[in-house]
Each structure stands twice: as structure tokens, then as C-alpha cells.
Amino acid sequence: MEHCKLFFFAQVFLDFFVVVAANFDPFTDSNLFSIKWQGHIELTKEEVASLGDRHVMVTTSEKEFYRCILPDEKKQSNDEANNDTGPTVDELIRPLFKQAHCSYRIESYWTYELCHGKHLKQYHETKEQGMQPKVQEYYLGFGNHRDNLKDEDKVLPAQASIPVREVDGVELPFYEVIMGDGTKCDLTGAPRKAHVLYVCQPEGRGEVYEFKESSTCEYEVIVLTSLLCKHPKYRPKTHPVNEIRCHAMFGSPLKPSELTQIEHESSYLQTSEQDYFNQEPVEQRKPKFIHKKKQSENPVEPKVPQDQQSQLGALTDKQTLRDILSGSQCLRGGAGWWKHEVCFGKFAKQFHLEVGREANIFLGHWNKEKHLAWLEQNPLKRPKPVEHRKLISLFYSDGDVCDLTKKPRNCEVRLKCIQNIKNPHAVILSLAEPEACQYVLTVESALFCSILKEADDNGLLDHVEL
């Protein structure tokens, strides 16, 4: 069998190929095909009639004749249906919900605990020397909504389509468990809820692969388990390769002569050591078509001397810095549900778009006096000597009240110098939460490398003229 030859098949037969199969589209991107060139075959009128729309007669430009038989889609559907005779998906995954141990995912601040079918919670433990550990926790959901379903509702219909989720470029069917009645959300006033999606992974033992907040106080968890792999409908979605069998009629070669020639040329290019296309000396090669434009069609741009280019670049850098540090140009980052934004001299916040509006949580507001007081309490946050300085820290205080600590949020904004030759104007933002509702927002760019050395002992740039 020769895979992925449908392109050649179409190229060779493009001018003369007549398909009588009304429901068959060989050029559909979602369908994969291979052509198997087989020997001569003689079919009776009854056998030809039994093929119906799957029978295609093809003639090449060399007057070569082939009878091609298309895949039997009904047979494939029946084969898939016959795979549904084993245990149900609920029966297959039941051992995971009966086990005593839970699964954990540890991130920089929070730890997530998933006890399958029982609860999902996140917590953080703070340990101080000589004091009892302090634990902050709240539940994201309890139970398994499928426990409330009737037995007949748990059975998967024969023609039911399984929902899929793309993970690392692969479509994976998932088995969903909804866990509700979690800790009340201070933003929505409703209990937290989690959607736990179990997917087939041959080595999976119930570990949490991915955790994200899909909407405000609603979470999505992807869990890997080998138990689902025993069910044919929950294996990774791969597009089957459909076989087209083409039989040469008497007097025709087993394979079209033009296709054979293409394959010989392809093989030659892969094995030959010489440059097949460039056998002429370089000075003898000429383009086949030369188009000369009129002078008015291709105006010559005035050249800017190198020293003037450097001056223009410096002016652009200063203007960009002026816009950023004055707060007239805010910086946004983040790729998850919650994104973050800093407007220097104004505020730092988290936000997301929900039903056409922007929901904000302010992490802190700029107050020079409170920044100076923060430096007095945290002298290590002062800028390092100029020769060793790579960043400065600015304290943004009095953010929105935190539901865990019952205190206003605050955020340390760090301006950091990084060398980036390819993208000197690129700005990278990253947000961390080392303690509950206390944030560190790092803003990195090559733009800051020169200006950081001019900051005063408090990290302020008020006196600097840009």
C-alpha cells in the first residue's frame, strides 16, 4: 500500500476523472486516504451493481483505464458500533473513585488536592518559626454529579458523540465529573464549582495534568487515567486512513505511467548527489522572465546615515519610556483567564472579560508616601548600587480587600533590565502571588537597562528627564 498518494492521484487524473459516487469527496481535508494499486480484476454485472456509489471508473491522458473501489463507510460505522459491547465507561472508571488516596498538583503558592468523586480544594500552609502553621484553604467543589443520575441516563447511546478537548495538539475525548457546592465566591456570591475532565492516557494514574480558572470561581481540571483507554470511544481521536483500491483494466499498466515517472524523478532527487535543478554554472544561469519596472514604479527611498539612524532610534526609545513611566501607556500581560495590567504611577490590577464587560481586581494603587514607608520596613528592597543594579522595586498599596486575609491587597512592581537584541522594545510581564493577596508583578525589557541606573536610593525616577 502506498500512503498519501492521493495528491499524485488527483494530479494525474485531474482532466479526465469522473466520479459517480455522489456522497464521496476525496478532497475533504478531514479525510485521509491511501491508494493501493492492485492487479487486474474482472467483476460481474451483479458485483458492479452491488458496489453502488463506491464504484469509480478512471481514464488517464495516456488512455489507461482503472476501476477504483472506494471505502465502505457503512462497514466502518458498523465496526465501530460493534466495539460498544464491553463495560460502560462508568464501570471502567469506578475504581478511581473508590481508591483511598488523592491526587495533588503543587504550584508556586497554592497546592490543589483532588480526591476523585469526593472533593477538590486548594490550600496554602504558612510556617513561621516557633508558631503553629497557618493554613488557608477553600473548597472548589464536592461530590460527583453522576451519582445523582439514573442508571439508564448513565448508559452511553450507541450513536452519541463524545465531547473532546484538545491537549498538546491531540483531540482527547473526555469523561466529565461536575463537583459543586464549593466555598462561596466573594465575587459572584455563588458557591465555587469545578469541571473535572478525565482523559485516556496509557500511563495515567489519576494525576492532575492541567488546572485553570475557566470563569470567575469556576474551574476546569484535566486528569489523566489509563482506565478510559479500555473504552474505544475514549481513545485519542485519530483520523483513519481510508483505502482506495484501484485495479488496472486489461491492456493498462498496474500503475499509471505518469505517476510512475513522477515517482522515479522523486527517487532520483532524493538519492542523487548532484544538484538536479542547478547543473549550469552560476554565471550562466538566467531567469526565464525578466520584468523591468519603470523608474516611477520603484522609487528609491532616501538613505539615512548610520549616525542619524541611531539618533532616531534613541528618540523612539525615550518616547516609549516616557509613555510607559508616565502612565499614559499601560502594559498588559497574561495568557490565562485572569490577565494583569500596570499603569505606572497609577495602579496594578487583574482583569478578565466576562459577558462583554471587564471585571477588575485592583492589586494596588500608587502612593509615594506608602512606598517610602514600605522601604523603611523592607530595606533590602532598596535599589542596589548602580554597578550591580538590574531592577528596582515600587510598592503599590491599598488594593481591593482580600476575601482570605480581610485586608487590602498590595503589589510589588519590579522593573527589570534584560538584554533582548532581537526585540529591543519587547516588554514581558509576569505575576506571582508568594503570599495570599500579596503580589509581585515583574516588568522586563531592554528599555529599562539605561534608566534604572538613574533611579534614586528609593527607586524613584521623578527627577529623570526623558
Quick overview:
The protein is α+β, with helices and mostly antiparallel strands.
Write the layout of secondary structure elements.
Layout: E1 2-3, H1 6-13, E2 32-38, H2 45-51, E3 55-59, E4 65-69, H3 73-81, H4 89-98, E5 103-106, E6 111-115, E7 119-126, E8 134-142, H5 151-154, E9 164-167, E10 170-179, E11 193-200, E12 205-215, E13 218-225, E14 241-248, H6 257-271, H7 306-325, E15 331-333, E16 339-343, E17 347-354, E18 357-366, H8 368-377, E19 391-397, E20 410-417, E21 427-435, E22 438-445, H9 448-451
Parallel strand pairs: 2-14, 11-13, 20-22
Antiparallel strand pairs: 1-2, 3-4, 4-14, 5-6, 6-7, 7-8, 9-10, 10-11, 12-13, 15-16, 16-17, 17-18, 18-19, 19-20, 21-22
Rounded Rg:
33 Å
Task: Give me the number of helical elements.
Answer: 9
Quaternary structure of the protein: single chain
Low-pLDDT segments:
1-29, 272-313
How would a textbook summarize the main sheet? 8 strands, mixed
User: What structural class do you assign from the helix and strand content?
Assistant: alpha+beta
Strand content: 25-35%
List the strand order in the largest sheet: 15-16-17-18-19-20-22-21
Helix content: 10-25%
What is the approximate shape? flat
